[in-house]
Here is the input.
Amino acid sequence: MPRTREVGTLWIGGPFSWMEQLCLKSFVDKGQKITLFSYEDIPNVPDGVIRRDGREIIDTDDFIKYERKNSYALFADWFRLHMIHQNPGMIWVDTDVYCHRPMDYDSDYVLGFERPDGRTINNAVLGLPQHGDLLRTLLDFTEDRFSIAPFLPEDLQDKYRQRAEADRPVHVSAQPWGIWGPLMLTYYVPKLNLLDEVLPLQAFYPITYRGRQRFLRPASLAERELTEDTTALHLWATNKQQIGEIHHGLPPRGSYLEKIVREHQIMPALAPIKARGRAVFANALIDDLDMDDVRSVADLTGEARSFVLGLHQKFGCDIYLVNCDRRARLQNAEADWIADYIAFLTENGVASDRIKVARTEDNLVPVDVLCNLKGFGDVWRIRFLELFLERCARKGTRLFTDVRRGSGGVRFLKNRGARTKLSERFEDGHYTVRLRVTLENAPVSATLGNAA
Here is the structure.
């Protein structure tokens, strides 16, 4: 007889983005009880989610990661096995799994194929009998962090044996992705003659990893893949990289993700996707803002739109877009990025009368936050920033700026105020740092202009 069971998940790593909020709230909204385990406070968990301390399951401060990807997925793979063992009937879901409809499976086995080949089994959704052979086997295998998995390629097994014989065994954190997850599950399920218990692709992964970008495209492309067999839908958090780099950390306009965000009344601009692995996106700058109030922000390059939107959502500040070229010449002919930037802001709820475009020097005004990302001192000459420090800054203005090694930017900013290094990157052969500068010595020659 079908039964709707409780689901559980784990989060390590600070506040949720809108994606985690969406997925957890979807279970609440669809009437399926969900428990979130964590090892620290998470400030923006949706109402209705049950909270429990992760130490009830594994009492540790050793959160092992995959070394190459800086990911807690390895610890989560281990944690879910113990969660299932200690909570009979509870189904694990990753925090990027959306409740399309409640899971009401009668079987204690809740797992699915993730590829059309009918071989690879994912563990993003996982339920197992508490005392079954499979769970016991998986728990036993994960007890040894230096074990040599029989499902790895023979040449890799040989390499690991040689390392072990030389008293330099390879820790699980340095082994292939999925070693305690899909790789392990895909090996042991058929070995224990349990393939008949695996649900078809349509249950959880009707949109496969290779097709995951359908979630970022018009909603109909994803919807046509869903069937009456689809319950918990894996949204593939790997999409976060593209969402952060191209879509400013927000659901793409008109996409399936935007549709379901609206259905569940999530406000993405208040919890944008700020990072993925080691990549940090511009909207993460709001976490580096050390001000209690912001009344105005200016963007010189068009590269800070998600940060600017976040500032407006949080403080209701006015927004100034500076229509200039690489030599700081303001112009009436609109720069390529201006129209798209304005559309982005208005589509995300910013009233048009709160957006000003500075087309002449008289339009420049002192602001609380000045954004110069991928601009003067990075791809353009730093000396042209002087105009904007004179006209847009006052004592205490926060300048967020990128400085490329060799640009002279550090020397230029040396006596302007206190500098804080926020992040760094190396791309196209150039090393660049992102700084927050609390301006103390910028001349204030501007008065409020008539930007329009």
Q: What stands out?
A: The domain at 7-238 is CATH 3.90.550 (Spore Coat Polysaccharide Biosynthesis Protein SpsA; Chain A). DSSP finds 13 helices and 17 strands in the chain. The two ends are 65 Å apart (CA to CA).
